[in-house]
Amino acid sequence: MKIDEISNHILRVLERDGRIPNTELAAKVGLSPSACLRRVQELERFGVIEGYRAVLNREAMGRSFLAYITVGLGVHTKEGQESFERAVAEMPEVRECHNVTGTVEYLLRIEATDLAAYKRVHSDGLGTLPQVRTMTTYVVMGSPKDTRG
Length: 149
Description:
- By secondary structure, this protein is of the alpha+beta class.
- It has two domains: 5-45, Winged helix-like DNA-binding domain superfamily/Winged helix DNA-binding domain (Arc Repressor Mutant, subunit A); 65-139, 2-Layer Sandwich (Alpha-Beta Plaits), CATH 3.30.70.
- The protein contains five helices and four strands; from the N terminus they run αααβαββαβ.
- A four-stranded antiparallel sheet has the order 2-3-1-4.
- Strand 2 (94-99) and strand 3 form a beta hairpin.
- Helix 1 (5-16) packs across helix 2 (22-29).
- The chain is elongated and about 55 Å long.
C-alpha cells in the first residue's frame, strides 16, 4: 500500500485523537466523509492502523514512578531469551519489553506506584531470574515529549 500525503495527514490526526468523529477527520484532511472513511478502512485493512486504544494517565492510576531498565543476559541462547521474555510477560509493572542491539539484550519500561514498589520489581522479580546478568536503571524525571498512544 502506498501512503500518500492525505493518508499521512489522516494518520497524524488519528494518532493525536483516535476517537475523532469521521466527519471532523474528513474536514481536517480535506476529504468528503465517505472518501475519508474509505481511506481509514483501507489503512486498517492493510495493517497500517493496527487498532485504537485509550491513553491512560499513570499518575491518576497510582503508577507515578516510571523507569527504564536495560537488562543483560548471562545466557545468550534462544531458550534463555524466550524464558526471560515469558517471565517478564507475567510482571504487570513491566509495561514494555524490547529486544535491542548493543551491549545489553533488553530495554524494559517499568511503571510502579513508588520507589519501594519499583525495588520489589527490581530485586524480587527481575533480580531473581537466572538469565539476568546485569541491570541498569534509568529513572524518568520528566517526559517533555511522549507520543505513544
